[in-house]
Design brief:
alpha+beta; Immunoglobulin-like; 2 domains; four-stranded antiparallel beta sheet
Protein backbone atom coordinates (compact mmCIF):
# COMPACT_ATOMS: atom_id res chain seq x y z
CA UNK A 1 0.00 0.00 0.00
CA UNK A 2 1.42 3.37 -0.94
CA UNK A 3 1.27 5.94 1.83
CA UNK A 4 0.53 9.61 1.73
CA UNK A 5 -0.09 11.92 4.65
CA UNK A 6 -2.65 13.71 2.56
CA UNK A 7 -3.95 16.05 5.25
CA UNK A 8 -2.32 18.48 7.61
CA UNK A 9 -3.74 18.24 11.13
CA UNK A 10 -7.49 18.33 10.66
CA UNK A 11 -9.30 21.28 12.12
CA UNK A 12 -11.88 19.00 13.65
CA UNK A 13 -14.86 21.16 14.17
CA UNK A 14 -18.52 20.40 13.60
CA UNK A 15 -19.91 21.08 10.17
CA UNK A 16 -23.46 20.70 11.31
CA UNK A 17 -26.31 21.55 9.01
CA UNK A 18 -28.55 24.53 9.67
CA UNK A 19 -30.11 23.85 13.04
CA UNK A 20 -32.90 25.04 15.25
CA UNK A 21 -31.89 27.95 17.45
CA UNK A 22 -31.90 31.70 18.06
CA UNK A 23 -29.24 34.37 17.59
CA UNK A 24 -28.28 37.36 19.71
CA UNK A 25 -28.72 40.92 18.43
CA UNK A 26 -26.07 41.96 15.93
CA UNK A 27 -23.29 44.43 16.70
CA UNK A 28 -23.14 47.93 15.20
CA UNK A 29 -22.81 47.14 11.47
CA UNK A 30 -20.26 49.94 11.00
CA UNK A 31 -18.13 48.91 13.99
CA UNK A 32 -18.32 45.15 13.44
CA UNK A 33 -15.57 44.93 10.75
CA UNK A 34 -13.10 46.61 13.11
CA UNK A 35 -13.99 44.41 16.07
CA UNK A 36 -14.07 41.15 14.10
CA UNK A 37 -11.05 41.84 11.87
CA UNK A 38 -9.07 38.82 13.09
CA UNK A 39 -12.17 36.60 13.14
CA UNK A 40 -13.07 37.22 9.50
CA UNK A 41 -11.74 34.80 6.89
CA UNK A 42 -10.26 36.33 3.71
CA UNK A 43 -13.37 35.65 1.57
CA UNK A 44 -15.59 37.09 4.31
CA UNK A 45 -13.46 40.23 4.49
CA UNK A 46 -13.75 40.67 0.74
CA UNK A 47 -17.54 40.20 0.79
CA UNK A 48 -18.03 42.58 3.71
CA UNK A 49 -16.17 45.32 1.85
CA UNK A 50 -18.57 44.93 -1.07
CA UNK A 51 -21.74 45.44 1.00
CA UNK A 52 -23.26 48.89 0.59
CA UNK A 53 -26.23 49.00 3.00
CA UNK A 54 -26.86 48.13 6.64
CA UNK A 55 -29.54 45.56 5.76
CA UNK A 56 -26.92 43.39 4.08
CA UNK A 57 -24.36 44.10 6.81
CA UNK A 58 -26.82 42.85 9.45
CA UNK A 59 -27.66 39.77 7.37
CA UNK A 60 -23.92 39.18 7.00
CA UNK A 61 -23.53 39.17 10.78
CA UNK A 62 -26.36 36.68 11.25
CA UNK A 63 -24.75 34.30 8.75
CA UNK A 64 -21.29 35.00 10.25
CA UNK A 65 -22.41 33.90 13.73
CA UNK A 66 -24.47 30.95 12.44
CA UNK A 67 -21.32 29.62 10.74
CA UNK A 68 -19.63 29.75 14.16
CA UNK A 69 -22.35 28.18 16.30
CA UNK A 70 -20.75 25.15 18.02
CA UNK A 71 -24.08 23.79 19.28
CA UNK A 72 -26.74 24.24 16.59
CA UNK A 73 -30.09 23.12 17.87
CA UNK A 74 -29.76 25.03 21.16
CA UNK A 75 -31.22 28.43 21.92
CA UNK A 76 -27.88 30.19 22.30
CA UNK A 77 -24.61 30.51 20.43
CA UNK A 78 -21.97 30.03 23.12
CA UNK A 79 -19.08 31.19 20.95
CA UNK A 80 -20.90 34.38 20.01
CA UNK A 81 -21.61 35.10 23.66
CA UNK A 82 -17.98 34.46 24.60
CA UNK A 83 -16.63 36.78 21.90
CA UNK A 84 -19.09 39.53 22.77
CA UNK A 85 -18.03 39.26 26.42
CA UNK A 86 -14.39 39.59 25.31
CA UNK A 87 -15.26 42.70 23.29
CA UNK A 88 -17.02 44.26 26.28
CA UNK A 89 -14.04 43.50 28.54
CA UNK A 90 -11.62 44.85 25.95
CA UNK A 91 -13.58 48.12 25.75
CA UNK A 92 -13.10 48.49 29.50
CA UNK A 93 -9.40 47.65 29.53
CA UNK A 94 -7.74 48.68 26.30
CA UNK A 95 -9.54 51.85 25.19
CA UNK A 96 -7.52 54.79 23.82
CA UNK A 97 -8.65 58.25 22.73
CA UNK A 98 -10.86 57.84 19.65
CA UNK A 99 -10.50 54.05 19.68
CA UNK A 100 -12.56 51.38 21.40
CA UNK A 101 -10.60 48.71 23.22
CA UNK A 102 -12.28 45.93 21.21
CA UNK A 103 -10.89 47.53 18.03
CA UNK A 104 -7.27 47.49 19.22
CA UNK A 105 -4.87 44.65 18.56
CA UNK A 106 -5.15 43.57 22.20
CA UNK A 107 -8.94 43.42 22.00
CA UNK A 108 -8.95 41.55 18.71
CA UNK A 109 -6.45 38.92 19.88
CA UNK A 110 -8.32 38.52 23.17
CA UNK A 111 -11.56 37.85 21.25
CA UNK A 112 -9.89 35.32 18.93
CA UNK A 113 -7.66 33.40 21.35
CA UNK A 114 -8.86 34.33 24.84
CA UNK A 115 -6.48 35.24 27.70
CA UNK A 116 -2.85 34.17 27.12
CA UNK A 117 -1.13 31.52 29.20
CA UNK A 118 1.69 33.94 30.00
CA UNK A 119 2.56 37.63 29.60
CA UNK A 120 6.14 38.83 29.15
CA UNK A 121 6.98 42.47 29.86
CA UNK A 122 9.62 44.14 31.98
CA UNK A 123 9.10 41.12 34.20
CA UNK A 124 7.61 37.74 33.48
CA UNK A 125 4.07 37.19 34.67
CA UNK A 126 2.77 33.65 34.68
CA UNK A 127 -0.84 34.82 34.80
CA UNK A 128 -2.67 37.18 32.49
CA UNK A 129 -3.32 40.31 34.58
CA UNK A 130 -5.32 42.69 32.44
CA UNK A 131 -5.90 45.12 35.31
CA UNK A 132 -2.23 45.86 35.96
CA UNK A 133 -2.05 48.88 33.72
CA UNK A 134 -5.06 50.43 35.50
CA UNK A 135 -3.11 50.28 38.77
CA UNK A 136 0.27 51.32 37.39
CA UNK A 137 -0.66 53.89 34.73
CA UNK A 138 0.16 53.65 31.05
CA UNK A 139 0.44 50.26 29.42
CA UNK A 140 3.86 48.87 28.64
CA UNK A 141 5.09 46.95 25.66
CA UNK A 142 4.42 43.30 26.40
CA UNK A 143 4.22 39.91 24.72
CA UNK A 144 1.29 37.54 25.10
CA UNK A 145 2.22 33.86 24.96
CA UNK A 146 -0.22 31.16 23.80
CA UNK A 147 0.61 27.47 23.76
CA UNK A 148 -0.95 24.36 22.27
CA UNK A 149 -3.30 22.56 24.61
CA UNK A 150 -5.77 19.66 24.20
CA UNK A 151 -8.82 21.92 24.37
CA UNK A 152 -7.72 23.80 21.22
CA UNK A 153 -9.01 22.37 17.95
CA UNK A 154 -5.90 23.57 16.10
CA UNK A 155 -2.14 23.75 16.58
CA UNK A 156 0.28 26.68 16.41
CA UNK A 157 3.17 26.42 13.94
CA UNK A 158 5.78 25.89 16.66
CA UNK A 159 3.41 24.68 19.40
CA UNK A 160 3.50 28.26 20.75
CA UNK A 161 2.40 31.70 19.57
CA UNK A 162 3.88 35.00 20.80
CA UNK A 163 2.16 38.31 20.04
CA UNK A 164 4.32 41.37 20.81
CA UNK A 165 2.23 44.49 21.55
CA UNK A 166 3.56 48.03 21.73
CA UNK A 167 2.27 50.41 24.47
CA UNK A 168 -0.76 51.26 22.27
CA UNK A 169 -1.80 47.64 21.78
CA UNK A 170 -0.53 47.40 18.21
CA UNK A 171 1.36 44.41 16.87
CA UNK A 172 3.20 43.56 13.68
CA UNK A 173 1.26 41.09 11.57
CA UNK A 174 2.76 38.83 8.94
CA UNK A 175 4.65 35.58 8.48
CA UNK A 176 3.95 32.74 10.89
CA UNK A 177 1.97 35.00 13.21
CA UNK A 178 -0.51 35.85 10.45
CA UNK A 179 -0.73 32.18 9.45
CA UNK A 180 -1.44 31.07 13.02
CA UNK A 181 -4.07 33.77 13.55
CA UNK A 182 -5.84 32.80 10.32
CA UNK A 183 -5.67 29.14 11.32
CA UNK A 184 -7.28 29.98 14.66
CA UNK A 185 -10.02 31.98 12.93
CA UNK A 186 -10.68 29.13 10.48
CA UNK A 187 -11.02 26.67 13.36
CA UNK A 188 -13.90 28.71 14.79
CA UNK A 189 -16.03 28.08 11.68
CA UNK A 190 -18.03 25.04 12.74
CA UNK A 191 -20.61 25.18 9.94
CA UNK A 192 -18.80 26.06 6.70
CA UNK A 193 -21.66 24.70 4.60
CA UNK A 194 -23.70 27.80 5.51
CA UNK A 195 -23.17 30.17 2.60
CA UNK A 196 -23.55 33.92 2.16
CA UNK A 197 -26.43 33.47 -0.29
CA UNK A 198 -28.20 36.29 -2.11
CA UNK A 199 -31.92 36.24 -2.77
CA UNK A 200 -33.77 37.26 -5.93
CA UNK A 201 -33.55 40.91 -4.83
CA UNK A 202 -29.76 40.74 -4.63
CA UNK A 203 -29.63 41.01 -0.83
CA UNK A 204 -28.07 38.45 1.51
CA UNK A 205 -30.53 35.93 2.94
CA UNK A 206 -30.07 35.42 6.73
CA UNK A 207 -30.61 31.94 8.25
CA UNK A 208 -33.58 33.16 10.28
CA UNK A 209 -35.60 33.29 7.06
CA UNK A 210 -35.57 29.48 7.07
CA UNK A 211 -37.69 29.29 10.24
CA UNK A 212 -40.53 27.65 8.28
CA UNK A 213 -38.23 24.78 7.32
CA UNK A 214 -37.24 24.32 10.96
CA UNK A 215 -40.87 24.04 12.00
CA UNK A 216 -41.54 21.54 9.21
CA UNK A 217 -38.56 19.46 10.35
CA UNK A 218 -39.91 19.29 13.90
CA UNK A 219 -43.22 18.02 12.54
CA UNK A 220 -41.39 15.47 10.39
CA UNK A 221 -39.43 14.09 13.35
CA UNK A 222 -42.50 14.02 15.59
CA UNK A 223 -44.52 11.97 13.10
CA UNK A 224 -42.09 9.91 10.97
CA UNK A 225 -43.26 9.00 7.46
CA UNK A 226 -42.70 5.83 5.42
CA UNK A 227 -43.64 6.89 1.90
CA UNK A 228 -40.22 5.69 0.68
CA UNK A 229 -37.42 3.51 2.20
CA UNK A 230 -34.84 5.97 3.52
CA UNK A 231 -31.48 4.56 4.74
CA UNK A 232 -28.76 6.32 6.72
CA UNK A 233 -25.27 5.63 8.01
CA UNK A 234 -22.58 7.54 9.91
CA UNK A 235 -19.41 8.34 7.98
CA UNK A 236 -17.43 10.77 10.15
CA UNK A 237 -16.99 10.90 13.92
CA UNK A 238 -14.41 13.61 14.54
CA UNK A 239 -13.30 15.74 17.46
CA UNK A 240 -15.04 19.07 17.96
CA UNK A 241 -14.73 21.88 20.57
CA UNK A 242 -15.90 21.70 24.17
CA UNK A 243 -15.54 17.94 24.55
CA UNK A 244 -17.92 17.20 21.70
CA UNK A 245 -17.56 15.30 18.45
CA UNK A 246 -18.96 15.87 14.99
CA UNK A 247 -21.07 12.98 13.77
CA UNK A 248 -21.78 13.22 10.05
CA UNK A 249 -23.23 10.77 7.59
CA UNK A 250 -25.29 10.08 4.50
CA UNK A 251 -29.00 9.54 3.86
CA UNK A 252 -29.86 7.43 0.82
CA UNK A 253 -32.86 6.92 -1.44
CA UNK A 254 -32.61 3.57 -3.31
CA UNK A 255 -34.26 5.18 -6.34
CA UNK A 256 -33.49 8.79 -7.17
CA UNK A 257 -36.69 10.80 -6.67
CA UNK A 258 -38.05 13.13 -9.29
CA UNK A 259 -37.33 16.21 -7.17
CA UNK A 260 -33.85 17.66 -6.79
CA UNK A 261 -34.23 18.80 -3.16
CA UNK A 262 -35.35 17.56 0.24
CA UNK A 263 -35.82 18.81 3.78
CA UNK A 264 -33.55 16.66 5.96
CA UNK A 265 -33.77 16.50 9.77
CA UNK A 266 -31.62 14.59 12.28
CA UNK A 267 -32.32 14.10 15.99
CA UNK A 268 -30.18 12.36 18.62
CA UNK A 269 -31.70 10.71 21.70
CA UNK A 270 -30.10 8.95 24.67
CA UNK A 271 -31.11 5.60 26.12
CA UNK A 272 -34.04 7.18 27.94
CA UNK A 273 -35.37 8.69 24.73
CA UNK A 274 -34.50 12.27 25.69
CA UNK A 275 -33.68 14.42 22.68
CA UNK A 276 -30.14 15.86 22.91
CA UNK A 277 -29.77 17.67 19.63
CA UNK A 278 -31.57 18.38 16.37
CA UNK A 279 -30.31 19.67 13.03
CA UNK A 280 -32.15 20.46 9.80
CA UNK A 281 -31.13 21.52 6.33
CA UNK A 282 -32.77 22.24 3.01
CA UNK A 283 -30.53 20.19 0.74
CA UNK A 284 -29.98 19.11 -2.81
CA UNK A 285 -29.68 15.43 -3.73
CA UNK A 286 -26.71 13.82 -5.44
CA UNK A 287 -27.78 11.34 -8.12
CA UNK A 288 -25.47 8.33 -8.29
CA UNK A 289 -24.60 6.00 -11.17
CA UNK A 290 -26.61 3.10 -9.68
CA UNK A 291 -29.82 5.16 -9.79
CA UNK A 292 -29.89 6.02 -6.08
CA UNK A 293 -29.54 9.46 -4.51
CA UNK A 294 -27.79 10.66 -1.35
CA UNK A 295 -27.32 13.75 0.74
CA UNK A 296 -25.31 14.42 3.89
CA UNK A 297 -26.19 15.32 7.47
CA UNK A 298 -24.25 16.20 10.62
CA UNK A 299 -24.75 16.83 14.32
CA UNK A 300 -22.36 17.69 17.21
CA UNK A 301 -22.66 15.32 20.18
CA UNK A 302 -20.91 14.67 23.48
CA UNK A 303 -19.29 11.27 24.20
CA UNK A 304 -21.83 8.49 24.68
CA UNK A 305 -24.26 6.19 22.87
CA UNK A 306 -27.15 7.61 20.87
CA UNK A 307 -30.00 6.59 18.62
CA UNK A 308 -30.26 8.94 15.68
CA UNK A 309 -33.50 9.50 13.81
CA UNK A 310 -32.99 10.71 10.24
CA UNK A 311 -36.10 11.96 8.45
CA UNK A 312 -36.54 13.48 5.00
CA UNK A 313 -39.35 15.11 3.09
CA UNK A 314 -39.09 15.66 -0.65
CA UNK A 315 -39.82 19.11 -1.98
CA UNK A 316 -41.51 17.45 -4.97
CA UNK A 317 -44.81 16.02 -3.76
CA UNK A 318 -44.08 16.22 -0.04
CA UNK A 319 -43.47 12.48 0.42
CA UNK A 320 -41.46 11.56 3.52
CA UNK A 321 -39.34 8.76 4.91
CA UNK A 322 -37.35 8.06 8.06
CA UNK A 323 -34.91 5.62 9.60
CA UNK A 324 -32.87 5.16 12.79
CA UNK A 325 -29.29 4.15 13.53
CA UNK A 326 -27.15 3.71 16.64
CA UNK A 327 -23.98 5.76 17.06
CA UNK A 328 -21.25 5.63 19.71
CA UNK A 329 -19.21 8.81 20.20
CA UNK A 330 -15.71 8.26 21.68
CA UNK A 331 -14.25 10.57 24.32
CA UNK A 332 -11.58 12.38 22.30
CA UNK A 333 -10.74 14.72 25.17
CA UNK A 334 -10.17 12.11 27.85
CA UNK A 335 -6.93 11.01 29.51
CA UNK A 336 -6.72 7.71 27.61
CA UNK A 337 -5.75 6.96 24.03
CA UNK A 338 -8.65 7.27 21.58
CA UNK A 339 -9.08 6.98 17.83
CA UNK A 340 -11.87 8.03 15.52
CA UNK A 341 -13.60 5.48 13.33
CA UNK A 342 -11.80 4.96 10.01
CA UNK A 343 -13.01 7.18 7.18
CA UNK A 344 -12.89 5.49 3.75
CA UNK A 345 -13.42 7.50 0.58
CA UNK A 346 -12.28 7.51 -3.05
CA UNK A 347 -9.38 9.72 -4.09
CA UNK A 348 -10.99 12.28 -6.37
CA UNK A 349 -10.15 15.76 -7.67
CA UNK A 350 -10.78 18.49 -5.10
CA UNK A 351 -14.47 19.29 -4.97
CA UNK A 352 -15.60 22.91 -5.28
CA UNK A 353 -16.55 24.77 -2.10
CA UNK A 354 -19.95 23.63 -0.92
CA UNK A 355 -22.85 25.99 -0.58
CA UNK A 356 -25.62 25.50 1.96
CA UNK A 357 -27.58 23.10 -0.29
CA UNK A 358 -24.68 21.03 -1.61
CA UNK A 359 -25.56 17.35 -0.98
CA UNK A 360 -22.00 16.72 0.27
CA UNK A 361 -21.72 19.83 2.45
CA UNK A 362 -21.35 17.92 5.75
CA UNK A 363 -18.62 15.65 4.38
CA UNK A 364 -15.54 17.67 5.35
CA UNK A 365 -12.14 16.51 6.51
CA UNK A 366 -10.58 19.78 7.57
CA UNK A 367 -10.65 22.00 4.46
CA UNK A 368 -11.31 19.06 2.09
CA UNK A 369 -14.77 18.12 0.86
CA UNK A 370 -14.99 14.35 0.33
CA UNK A 371 -17.60 12.09 -1.26
CA UNK A 372 -17.62 8.76 0.60
CA UNK A 373 -19.57 5.83 -0.78
CA UNK A 374 -22.75 4.63 0.91
CA UNK A 375 -22.04 1.18 2.34
CA UNK A 376 -18.32 1.64 1.58
CA UNK A 377 -18.85 0.05 -1.84
CA UNK A 378 -16.02 0.82 -4.29
CA UNK A 379 -15.15 -0.01 -7.89
CA UNK A 380 -11.90 -1.51 -9.22
CA UNK A 381 -11.26 1.85 -10.92
CA UNK A 382 -11.28 3.67 -7.56
CA UNK A 383 -8.23 4.65 -5.53
CA UNK A 384 -8.97 4.25 -1.83
CA UNK A 385 -8.12 6.78 0.89
CA UNK A 386 -8.19 5.84 4.59
CA UNK A 387 -8.01 8.36 7.44
CA UNK A 388 -8.45 8.31 11.22
CA UNK A 389 -7.59 10.80 13.94
CA UNK A 390 -5.67 9.83 17.09
CA UNK A 391 -6.01 11.57 20.43
CA UNK A 392 -4.78 11.48 24.01
CA UNK A 393 -1.36 9.86 23.71
CA UNK A 394 0.65 10.26 26.92
CA UNK A 395 3.72 12.53 26.92
CA UNK A 396 7.03 11.24 28.21
CA UNK A 397 7.99 13.09 31.39
CA UNK A 398 11.63 13.48 30.35
CA UNK A 399 11.31 14.45 26.67
CA UNK A 400 7.85 16.02 26.71
CA UNK A 401 7.02 14.01 23.58
CA UNK A 402 4.61 11.22 22.78
CA UNK A 403 5.55 7.84 21.28
CA UNK A 404 2.53 7.17 19.09
CA UNK A 405 2.60 4.56 16.31
CA UNK A 406 -0.05 3.52 13.80
CA UNK A 407 -0.34 1.08 10.92
CA UNK A 408 -3.13 0.24 8.44
CA UNK A 409 -3.72 -3.29 7.10
CA UNK A 410 -6.24 -4.73 4.63
CA UNK A 411 -7.66 -8.22 5.18
CA UNK A 412 -9.77 -10.52 3.00
CA UNK A 413 -11.39 -13.61 4.52
CA UNK A 414 -9.42 -12.85 7.69
CA UNK A 415 -6.03 -12.95 5.95
CA UNK A 416 -3.79 -9.88 5.36
CA UNK A 417 -3.52 -8.89 1.70
CA UNK A 418 -1.81 -5.51 2.17
CA UNK A 419 -0.04 -3.66 4.93
CA UNK A 420 1.02 -0.03 5.16
CA UNK A 421 4.19 1.39 6.61
CA UNK A 422 4.20 2.25 10.30
CA UNK A 423 3.72 5.96 11.04
CA UNK A 424 5.36 7.47 14.14
CA UNK A 425 4.15 10.63 15.88
CA UNK A 426 5.71 12.63 18.74
CA UNK A 427 2.51 14.59 19.45
CA UNK A 428 -0.45 13.52 21.62
CA UNK A 429 -2.87 14.09 18.72
CA UNK A 430 -2.21 13.00 15.14
CA UNK A 431 -3.79 12.08 11.83
CA UNK A 432 -3.16 8.58 10.52
CA UNK A 433 -3.73 8.26 6.78
CA UNK A 434 -2.85 5.96 3.91
CA UNK A 435 -3.50 6.13 0.19
CA UNK A 436 -4.28 6.48 -2.57
CA UNK A 437 -4.53 2.69 -2.86
CA UNK A 438 -5.36 1.54 -6.44
CA UNK A 439 -8.08 -1.11 -6.19
CA UNK A 440 -7.55 -2.45 -9.71
CA UNK A 441 -5.31 -5.23 -8.37
CA UNK A 442 -7.77 -6.41 -5.74
CA UNK A 443 -10.31 -9.16 -6.40
CA UNK A 444 -13.98 -8.34 -6.07
CA UNK A 445 -15.43 -9.11 -2.67
CA UNK A 446 -15.60 -8.06 0.96
CA UNK A 447 -12.60 -6.64 2.84
CA UNK A 448 -11.78 -5.32 6.30
CA UNK A 449 -9.29 -2.52 6.93
CA UNK A 450 -7.69 -2.39 10.38
CA UNK A 451 -5.82 0.41 12.11
CA UNK A 452 -3.54 -0.65 14.97
CA UNK A 453 -2.43 2.16 17.30
CA UNK A 454 0.16 1.97 20.09
CA UNK A 455 0.89 4.54 22.80
CA UNK A 456 4.49 3.62 23.72
CA UNK A 457 4.61 5.85 26.79
CA UNK A 458 1.36 4.63 28.35
CA UNK A 459 1.77 1.07 27.11
CA UNK A 460 -1.69 1.07 25.53
CA UNK A 461 -2.90 -0.33 22.21
CA UNK A 462 -6.19 -0.12 20.36
CA UNK A 463 -7.61 -1.28 17.05
CA UNK A 464 -10.18 0.25 14.71
CA UNK A 465 -11.84 -1.74 11.92
CA UNK A 466 -13.97 -0.82 8.93
CA UNK A 467 -15.51 -3.03 6.27
CA UNK A 468 -15.59 -2.19 2.57
CA UNK A 469 -16.52 -3.97 -0.63
CA UNK A 470 -15.21 -3.98 -4.17
CA UNK A 471 -17.81 -4.65 -6.85
CA UNK A 472 -16.97 -5.22 -10.50
Amino acid sequence: MSTRLALSFLWLLPTAAAALGADSPEADPRRFPRQARLLLLPDEQALLKELRDDKDRRAFQEIFWARRDPTPGTASNELQASIRAAWTRADELFAYPNQKGSETGCGQVLALLGPPEEVLGLETRTRFDDLQYLREGDRRAETWVYRDRPSRAFRFTNAELRVAFDPECRFAEGGRLADDLERAATALVSRPELAYTRGADGHLVPPSHSAGSAAAAIDLLSAPRSDFPLAAEAKLVLRAPKGEALVAGLARWPTAPAGERALLAVRAADASGQSLGTAVRDTGLARLADGSAVTSWSLPLKPGRYQLTVAAQLSDGGKGGSTTLDVEVPDFGGAALAASPIVAYPDEPAAPAADARDPWAAMRLGPRLIRPRFGNVFLPSDRLMLVATLHGAKLDAASGKAALRSRFSILKDGKPVARGAEDVFATPDAVASVGPIPLAGYAAGAYVVTLDVTDGVAGLTLRREAAFEIRP
